[in-house]
Amino acid sequence: MKKYQYLIIGGGMTGSSAVMGIREVDQTGTIAMFSRDHYGPYNRPPLSKSLWGKGKVEDIFRPMDKYNLDLFLEDKIVALNPGEKWVESQNDERFGYDKLLLATGGHPIQLKDLPEGVIYFRTLSDYEKLRKAAEIGQDFCVIGAGFIGSEIAAALNKQGKSVTMIFPESGIAGRIFPDDLSLHMNQYYQGKGVKVLAGNLVNAVEKQGEKFSVQFADQRTGETSKADFDGVVVGVGIRPNIYLAEEAGLTVDNGIIVNDYLQTSDPDIYAAGDVANFYNPALGKRTRVEHEDNANTMGMAAGRNMAGAKQPYTHFPFFYSDLFDMGYEALGELHKDAKIVEDWIEPFEKGAVVYLEEDRVRGAIFWNLWGKIDLGREVIAGGESYPGEAIKGVFTQD
Questions:
Q1: Are residues 214 and 264 in the same domain?
Q2: pTM of the entire structure?
Q3: Which run of H or of E encompasses 277?
Q4: Comparing C-alpha atoms, which of 22, 17, 13 is closest to residue 5?
Q5: Cβ of 28: how many Cβ atoms within 10 Å?
Q6: Per the domain annotation, does 394 fall within a domain?
Q7: What is the Cα–Cα distance from 32 to 77, expressed in whole angstroms?
Q8: Which residue of 60, 149, 151, 272 is 20 to 30 Å from 141, comparing CA positions?
């Protein structure tokens, strides 16, 4: 059984950032990384953003060669034994470790009984499949209007494809946007040529020859419809990959529970990225974040701590999205049941959408309003009370 000082399960942005963090502290310790992906570590956001514009695939890969590690691709870890400190791969090989990181990310939420060829968009291989389909086909269905669905619909539309979005909410990003902004985005996408079927639930997808037949129902009227497409993309969120942690007896609850140093209930096993449930000091509560900033910063912190740095993770992560000519940065808790105050410099063009609980800011979206993330962190962490609409002007005044 080969033994490593550091063993990383997961070859995405979090895992590769952890390697960088380890090497900041320990330049010689042995590292192994296991990834189920066909490709080595790469940046994920370009898959639904720049690669549909002028971005190049070769530019998204992370240069891991210089970090001196053993990288096992298309190799799944199927067992973790914390007591004896080894893992077992799908090839029945065992590897020992001193410190281990679970950077297992998440897997796409899947709809029932969908045929082969439907794309659950998450990996570079998924991007390649959709690119190939877009080279041949013209009509595409995007199921879901959240983070991934809204970006993929825009990306395909900009390639000159006919795109139909089907989702149960009343508007695009309807789970986090206030209703008027969400409904405005419906109109905005329609103006770009996207067919928006809001308030509809997909009942079935069937493969008929080279076409996909999508059956869906209007949730208000119950009326059912059917349409045929050259390709179907599903983007309805992810679930954290916690199976290894569960089987190993680690504490899990909406992800893998970690302490301030990103250690799990076993101090020699760490967790970071999409899969980690961590304490956010600014919010004063535990949370789990599925975005790039958290993947990179938490991965780096976990790597440094695995190598002995002993630094608490206090970062307040943010995320961003590009939707045609619109863009936003956001952070914190974006719940529709919060009190929402919209502060527009130009209605639906530029401004801030602020989410409050008991008059305290818990989250914010900065809509085409850049450079406000640090101020947002400061305001949320400060815990000041903003009764009524007193928050107006805090983010929008220069």
A1: no
A2: 0.96
A3: strand 276-280
A4: 22
A5: 7
A6: no
A7: 12
A8: 60
The total of other beta-carbon atoms located within 10 Å of residue 249's CB is: 12
The reply to whether 15 and 65 lie within a common domain is yes
In a domain, 389, yes or no: no
Of 352, 356, 344, 351, nearest to 380 by C-alpha is 356
Sign of the CA dihedral 170, 173, 177, 183?
negative
Beta strands in 69-183 (DSSP E): 70-72, 77-81, 86-89, 94-102, 106-108, 119-120, 139-143, 162-167
pLDDT of residue 104: 97
- Check if the beta carbon of residue 178 is closer than 8 Å to that of residue 171: no
- How many CB atoms are closer than 10 A to CB 280? 22
Query: What's the rounded mean pLDDT across residues 212-240?
Result: 96
DSSP per-residue letters across 160-205:
T-EEEEEESSSSTTTTTS-HHHHHHHHHHHHHTT-EEEETEEEEEE
Instruction: Give Cα 101 distance to the centre of its chain.
Output: 19
Q: Which helix (H) or strand (E) holds 232?
A: strand 231-234
Please report whether residue 205 resides in a domain.
yes
| Domain residue limits at 225 | 110-234
Q: Please check whether residues 224 and 271 belong to one and the same domain.
A: no
Mean pLDDT of 203-216: 95
